[in-house]
Design a protein that fits this description.
The protein has about 140 residues and is mainly β. It has one domain: Metal Binding Protein, Guanine Nucleotide Exchange Factor, Chain A (Beta Complex), CATH 2.170.150. The protein is built from 2 helices and 10 strands. The strands form 2 sheets. Strands 6-7-8-9-4-3-10 form a 7-stranded mixed β-sheet. The chain has a 3-stranded antiparallel β-sheet with strand order 1-2-5, with no helix packed on it. A hairpin with a 4-residue loop joins β8 and β9. The protein is globular, with a radius of gyration of 14 Å.
Length: about 140
């Protein structure tokens, strides 16, 4: 379900600033090892169509090719994780914590739950998935 039709956000230092002029998806929590290593915990992500994302300040934006299929956008000045992009997807993921309030978003599921770390439990009652296939099948 899509929640927001106009949003803005940034990294911690303001050297990556963006606007979304279109709907944002519900939030998904990803527990894969790459997301945990990138964010320091499991990663929360919303997404929008690529054409709805407008990066207005990109002074600090750098992209890291984290796998053959995906890259992660972060600020090289403050270290904030801001974007995740799959090369073939029509959408781009955004860290919802980088959005300005209010977001109007809600979390709806966990993915890659077998990769979750051992210091927390997933007990919020949201659906849990082995991968992201069923989540992204609706895109």
């Amino acid at each position: 379900m899509e929640q927001t039709t106009k949003a803005s956000g940034s990294c911690l230092c303001g050297k990556v600033v963006y606007e979304v002029n279109g709907p944002l998806s519900d939030v998904i929590y990803c527990h894969c090892a790459q997301c945990r290593k990138t964010s320091g915990h499991y990663f929360a992500a919303t997404s929008c169509k690529r054409e709805h994302l407008n990066i207005t300040v990109d002074e600090g934006l750098r992209w890291f090719q984290s796998s053959p299929e995906a890259q992660r956008g972060f600020c090289n000045l403050c270290g904030s994780s801001v974007f995740w992009s799959h090369k073939d997807a029509p959408s781009i993921c955004i860290a919802p914590g980088s959005l300005d309030l209010p977001t109007g978003l809600k979390a709806v599921a966990h993915i890659f739950v077998a990769d979750a770390s051992d210091y927390y439990t997933i007990d919020d009652g949201l659906p849990q998935h082995a991968d992201y296939g069923t989540i992204h099948a609706a895109e």
